[in-house]
Amino acid sequence: MSKPLLTVSDLHVSFMSRWQHEPNVDVLRGVNLQVRRGERVALVGESGAGKSLLATSIIQLFESSAHILKGRVEFERQELTQLNSKQLRQIRGRRIGMIFQDPMTNLNPSLTIEQQLLQCILSHRNISRKEAHIVALHKLRQVHIPAPETRMQQYPHQLSAGQRQRATIAMALALEPALIIADEPTSALDVTMQAEVMRLLSHLCNNNGVALLIISHDLSLVAHASDRCLIMYAGQIVEQGPTKMLINDAQHPYTQGLIKALPNMSSPGQQLYQIPGQMPQLQELQQQCSFAKRCEHAEDICYRQAPLMAPHGTHQASCHILARPAELDPDTELTL
Ligand SMILES: Nc1ncnc2c1ncn2[C@@H]1O[C@H](COP(=O)(O)OP(=O)(O)OP(=O)(O)O)[C@@H](O)[C@H]1O
Ligand SMILES: [Mg+2]
Q1: Which of 102, 137, 242, 278 is deepest in the core (most CB within 10 A)?
Q2: How many angstroms does the Cα of residue 133 sit away from the middle of ligand 2?
Q3: Domains (ranges, CATH) in the chain?
C-alpha cells in the first residue's frame, strides 16, 4: 500500500476560554487519521462532533482562540504545525484544495468565474492566458456546467447554487492539488442536487487521482462517494473502515444508531429512528466512553474507562462492548 499523503496523529485541539473561571473546551481529543494518495475518505458525525474543526486544523486555518495542544499533521512529508503562514498559504493554495458548505465562501463575488479559474490555473502552470482559457473551459465542462462559455463570463451571484458549487469544484480541481477537503459541500443544495454534486466530486477526484476528505453528517450521502469512512463522535474517531464493510458490519453502537436512523432503514409511514439523548457537553467529558450515556449497551466499565481503538474484523472501533444490535440482521446487505 502507498505511503499516506496525510497523517494526523493524536491531535488535541482546544478552545481557550477568555475568562479564568471558565474551563477551556477540549474539542478534538486524540484524533488519528490517514488519507492515502487518490483515496476518498468520508468523515461522518453529528453536529458539534468537531468535523469542521478537524478540517481547519489540518490546514491550520482556525480562529485565534483555538489551539493545538498536542499532535502532528503530516502532509507530503511536511509537518504542517511547524510551517509559517507563507509556507501554509502555498500548501493551501496548491496542494490542498478546500471546498466549504456555502458556495459564496468559496468564490470571490467581485470576479467572474473565468477570472477566478484563470487565477488558479496561471498560479501554478506556465502557460499563456489563451491556453489557460481552454483549460478553464474544459474544467467547467467536466463539472457539467451548462453553456460554460457564457457562464464563465458571469459573476458568482448570476449562477444557481448548484452551478456555483460545480464552479467551486472546477476551481479546486484546476489547482491540481493532491488533496481536496470538502466540508459539507452540498448541504446548501436541494436533496436531488446533493447526491448529484457529491457523485460528481467523488468521481472527478477518482479520475484525476486526487485524494478526497469529504465531511458530512449524512452517512447515506457519502456512502457511495468514499472508499473509507471514519465516524466521529464528541471529538474522537470511534469507528473506521472500508465504507461498505463499515455500513454492513458496524461495530460501534453509535455507528449502528446512525445506520438505523437512515430513512430507508425505517418502513414507510414509520417514524424515523433517532439516537436518544444528545452529544455530551465537551467540557464535561471525563475518563469514560463519551457515548456511554446514550448507549443502550453501556456497562459499568463504559463509565469508568475510555475505550481504545482496536481492530474488529475489517475495521477498527473503540467500544468496550461491541454488541450487535438486535434490529440489524447481520446477513442483510444494506443498500443505500
Ligand atoms: N469559538 C469557539 N469556542 C468554543 N467552542 C467552539 C468554538 N467554535 C466551535 N466550538 C465547539 O467546537 C465543537 C465542534 O465544532 P465543529 O464546528 O467542528 O463541529 P461540526 O462537527 O463541524 O458540526 P456541524 O455538523 O454542525 O458543522 C462544537 O461543540 C462547538 O460548540
Ligand atoms: Mg461543520
Answers
A1: 137
A2: 34
A3: 4-226 (3.40.50.300), 227-336 (no CATH)
